[in-house]
């Protein structure tokens, strides 16, 4: 049986169940979902599936329209996985570029910021780079 036909039959039989069961796992296990809450019920996900004609999509993926918002009926929709992945990468870089501190809490000031990339648009923390280099040096000396 053709893989696409098999996938369509599987999705028709299982509908939106697998999407609903993945939401709590994401909220619990990913650092990108800190503070995000799930207000969707299994029935609401099924309604979204119907509303957005997810059966017609090749790889339906649940997308939060406002990626900083919660999982609510009005903030969610089904779109193609490829489009959702592109949105996630863009949102991640947009959020990182507006931050004043690195992941370890060091402030991005001129003396502590290393700019890199072809157009010098990406930045990293010099303190974190130094700490990482020291750890690597110590590891190699052993």
Describe this structure in words.
The chain is of the alpha+beta class and 142 residues long. The protein has five helices and four strands, in the order αααββαββα. β3 and β4 (122-125) form a beta hairpin. The protein folds into two domains: 1-98, no CATH class; 99-142, no CATH class. The chain has a two-stranded antiparallel sheet with strand order 1-2. A two-stranded antiparallel sheet has the order 3-4.
- Protein structure class: alpha+beta
Strand content: 5-15%
| Main sheet characteristics | 2 strands, antiparallel
The H/E string reads HHHEEHEEH
Q: How many separate domains make up the residues? A: 2
Q: Helix coverage percent of residues?
A: 40-55%
Mean pLDDT: 78
Q: How many whole angstroms does the radius of gyration measure?
A: 21 Å
How many distinct beta strands? 4
Task: Catalogue the unreliable spans.
Answer: none
Count of alpha/pi helices: 5
Q: What is the overall silhouette?
A: elongated
Distance N terminus to C terminus? 56 Å
Biggest β-sheet: strands ordered side by side in the sheet: 1-2
Task: Describe the secondary-structure layout.
Elements (H helix, E strand, L loop, with lengths): L2 H12 L2 H13 L12 H10 L8 E5 L11 E5 H17 L15 E4 L5 E4 H16 L1
Antiparallel strand pairs: 1-2, 3-4
Write a short abstract of this structure.
With 142 residues, the chain is of the alpha+beta class. The protein has 5 helices and 4 strands; from the N terminus they run H-H-H-E-E-H-E-E-H.
